[in-house]
From TrEMBL:
Name of the protein in its database record: RNA polymerase sigma factor
Organism, scientific name: Aureliella helgolandensis
Domain RNA polymerase sigma factor 70 region 4 type: 107-159
Keywords associated with the record: Sigma factor, Transcription, Transcription regulation
GO molecular function terms attached to this record: DNA binding; sigma factor activity
Top-level taxon of origin: Bacteria
Residue ranges annotated for the RNA polymerase sigma-70 region domain, each copy included: 16-78
GO biological process: DNA-templated transcription initiation
């Protein structure tokens, strides 16, 4: 596999859930959704050479999905419950905004995780990096499973507050 195809595949893997959700918001039939999603994936790979790596990938992929959905809707134009182009455009904008918000929240989460120290950092690492359940963590660090679950709950709340604080700071600046 050449490097361009590898990059397209990486980017598509990250964008696929948002693109799939956008398609599902417009295309009612689940078989048609799969077909449209597959058409979008092919179009993304085929036109990846035109993608500007300095711009966000998800909106670019949603733009391709919007065109593929438009093609699908034109073929189904006799269906009285089909969205018009303006409705599809509004949905594409909404999904783009949601993808940006999720991306920012993910970045904030990484920052907040980096600020964890001591036991909190160890607990989160064991739970999410090592995929251990509270009972396994408890035996690993000499705590009760209940104490581990409660401590994890407090750390998740701390992370949530940190992310919310960063969102407020970003919107203020």
């Amino acid at each position: 596999m050449d490097e361009t195809t590898r990059q397209a595949t990486r980017q598509w893997t990250l964008a696929q859930p948002a693109v799939s959700a956008f398609i599902a918001s417009v295309v009612r039939d689940f078989r048609d959704r799969d077909d449209v999603l597959q058409d979008v994936a092919v179009a993304v790979v085929e036109s990846f050479h035109a993608y500007d790596p300095n711009s966000p990938f998800i909106p670019w992929a949603i733009g391709i999905a919007r065109r593929q959905v438009g093609t699908y809707l034109r073929r189904r134009s006799r269906d009285p419950l089909v969205f018009d182009d303006d409705a599809v455009a509004c949905l594409a904008i909404a999904f783009h905004e949601q993808a940006q918000e999720r991306s920012a929240a993910h970045d904030y989460l990484q920052d907040c995780l980096g600020s964890l120290e001591g036991r909190a950092k160890k607990l989160i690492g064991l739970r999410y990096r090592d995929d251990m359940k509270p009972a396994a963590i408890a035996s690993h660090i000499d705590m009760t499973p209940n104490a581990v679950a409660k401590a994890l709950q407090r750390v998740r709340e701390q992370l949530k507050e940190c992310i919310q604080r960063k969102v407020v700071e970003a919107s203020a600046s």
